[in-house]
Amino acid sequence: MGKYKGEGSLAVRPKTTEEVSRILKHCNERNLAVVPQGGNTGLVGGSVPVFDEIIVSMARLNEVKSIDPLSGVLVCQAGCILQHLDDRVAKEGLMMPLDLGAKGSCHIGGNISTNAGGIRYLRYGSLHGSVLGLEVVLANGEVLDVLQSLRKDTTGYDLKQLFIGAEGTLGLVTAAAIHCPPRPKAKNATFLACATFSKVLETFRKAKADLGEILSAFEFLDKESLDLAVGTYEDVKSPLPGSPERFYVLLETSGSNEDHDNEKLHAFLEAALESGAISDGAVAQDGTQLKAFWRIREGVPEALNTHKAMYKYDLSIPQSTMYGLVEDMRARVGDRAYTVGYGHLGDGNLHLNVVADAYSEELTSLIEPFVYERTAELGGSVSAEHGLGQMKADCIGYTKGDSAVSLMRLVKKTLDPKGILNPYKVLPLPGEVTPPQDS
Ligand code: MLT
Ligand code: ZN
């Protein structure tokens, strides 16, 4: 986004876990702070140095160690690019359990460290479930080896979970064992129009009930998002041109039998049209059209990024009240900015973005802290899948209570007593007041 600019004067590019270990041992002894950096595609400034931290680039740790086609377990180093891994496991009939717009450059280590979500979450769940083992270099250089490939293991504390979503503040992930599901043999996508947000919710409920195990993505975008993507890029075209509706859904199914999936999907579409949940729809006729549907969805954040000022929020909010926040925000900012709502509706993950020609104090104060306060009131989380990074390190208190934040500080102090690992990220600086937790 060009929003975070670092000042680091030194970057190191280790090739092995041993080298990472020696780097951290040296930095810890000399009180030198480090910032781990993967594909640098994060949206909250987590991989950008704040002052003069040493950048530890993970790019050369890019080896695939093994793939077991029977168990579906991939073992690889942290610097492997997500798209490369997906291509590699495809040869064994498998796929990565996560997929996101940045797949061509993001690293699996960064995905794990931010607990990235993306578009396959609805079907394959969180990395807290898919990651079976990790190798992590701790602040003092010690290598924590919990790189197991077991689906089940109840021996003691599940230490790897601490590092999933820790954004490199507790240790540097150097390798991972990941469970990869079978690659679907049949894929289908439909682009649907709904008159109201409650119709979107009705469609989601129906999709879960009627499509069951083949439902693999349920993404929504409002008309403002669709118009922006279509208006910005020539190759983004709405499959429902001229549709007057306010909301659109990209629904994907993945399964093992094309005829069976088609039958289910068409029965669902007929019933949804008949009940009035959807008012129109288009089904992708082939792989090219399926890609074109996804291009619309991926075009939204890209088109937002062409604006000079971008206020970007990634929120978890109960689905029933999710869109109210977009409407409230639109009313607050008025014609000072353009407000859009889209996201992974199936996972309760709203992407609320406000874009304008320039940043201004007036606009900022209309947006924040309102967006965080309202999210907290609705029982949501201020970060669903992008992490806290430096953007939201002082916002954790909107979602987590004092006892949780205190325990996090204790964990941080125990694992990184000198505070050399990715400082100023995730947790507010000690002594800094976090927003109050009323409820
Ligand atoms: C997305 O779902 O498109 C991503 O999380 C990125 C974004 O909102 O910009
Ligand atoms: Zn997202």
Automatic annotation (TrEMBL):
Protein name: D-2-hydroxyglutarate dehydrogenase
All residue ranges annotated as the FAD-binding PCMH-type domain in the record: 4-183
GO cellular component, one term: mitochondrion
PROSITE patterns, per the entry: FAD_PCMH (PS51387)
Cofactors (names): FAD
Membrane-spanning residues: none
UniProt xrefs under Pfam families: FAD-oxidase_C, FAD_binding_4
EC number(s) recorded for this UniProt protein: 1.1.99.39
Enzyme class: oxidoreductase
Stored SUPFAM superfamilies: FAD-binding/transporter-associated domain-like (SSF56176), FAD-linked oxidases, C-terminal domain (SSF55103)
Top-level taxonomic group: Eukaryota
Keywords carried by this UniProt record: FAD, Flavoprotein, Oxidoreductase
Entry's family note: Belongs to the FAD-binding oxidoreductase/transferase type 4 family.
Any GO molecular function: (R)-2-hydroxyglutarate dehydrogenase activity
InterPro entries recorded: FAD-bd_oxidored_4_C, FAD-bd_PCMH, FAD-bd_PCMH-like_sf, FAD-bd_PCMH_sub1, FAD-bd_PCMH_sub2, FAD-linked_Oxase-like_C, FAD-oxidored/transferase_4, Oxid_FAD_bind_N
Signal sequence segment: none
